[in-house]
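User: I'll paste a sequence; please echo it back and then give the predicted structure.

Assistant: Echoing your sequence first, then the prediction.
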Amino acid sequence: MRVLCFGLDGADYDLVRELMAQGRLPTLSRLSREGAFGPLRSTIPPLTPVAWSSFLTGLNPGSHGIFGFSANPQRAVSRLESAANRAGVPLWRFLGAAGIRSAFVTVPFTYPPEPLAGLLVTGWGGPQRPEIFPVTARDRIFAAHPDLVTAQSPTGWWKDLDAFTQRLIDHVGEIADVCLLAMELEPDLGLLCVDFMSSDIAGHLTWHRLDPTHPAHDESGDELVRGRAISATSRRATPRDATSETSRPARRSTSAPRERTRSVTAARSTLRTEPKGMRRFSLSSRRRSRTFVIPKRESRSSR
C-alpha cells in the first residue's frame, strides 16, 4: 500500500471548511467525505518546531525536548533549534527498519538531514536552500529547480502583494513537481510526506485583508509596517500631536472597543541601572505609568 501524507501549513480549520462549503476545495471536500475530517488538538505550545517534532517522533515536547524556535537560555546554551537537538526516533527510521521506503519533502524541522531508506528534502527550520539526500536525488531535483527554496521569503512582500501572491502559488507547484520527481526516483515508495508552507506565509502576512473584523482590515499595506511608522511618528511628535486623534480623517469603524485600542499610543520604556544591585524599569503611556524594581542578576564571577 502506498500512502500520501500532505500538510497545508497554517491552514485554518474554520477557513478550510468555509472554502469547502463554497466549492473552492473540491479535492479536500472529497477526501473529507471519504475519510475522517475534524479539528486536531495541537501541541503545547502550538508552534511549528514543536508540533512538527511531535508529528515526526510521536512524542510530546517534554520527551522530544523542542519547546520553541530557540532553546530556553535559562536551561541551556542559547541556540536556534533544529532536528539535531531533538530527541526521539523520526518516522523514517521505523519505516526503514520495516523495509518501507519513504520520502519527506520540505517537512519542517528535518534539517540537518540524515541518511534514510528513501529521499529527504529538508524543510523550514534550516537553510532556505534545502539539503537533499541522497546525492543522486539532489542533482536531479536541483537540475529541474535550480532556485528551489524551503519557503518563499516574505521580505518586502507589501511592495507588490500580487507579485508575492504569485510567488507563493508558484512555490506550491514547484514543491508538487519535486514530489513527482521523488516518486520517479523512488518507484517503490511506501510513504510520501510533503508540507506546503505557502498557506502558512499567506495567513501570517495577509489575514487582515481577509478578516473584516481585523483592526487593519481597511488599511492598505502591511499593518506591521504601519505600526512601526506610527511608533516612529509618536516618538518625534509633540504632546499635542500625540493626542490629536480628532485631526485624523474619519475611518470606517467595525467596533468601538477596537477604535479605543487604536487611540492608545505605543508604550515607551526606559531602563537604567540603580545602586545596590537593583534595576529600575519604568513603563509609561498616555494613560498610566508604572515602575518596577527588580534585583539585578549577579554575574557568575561574583558568586
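The chain has two domains: 3-208, 268-296. Confidence is low (pLDDT under 50) at residues 221-225, 238-303.
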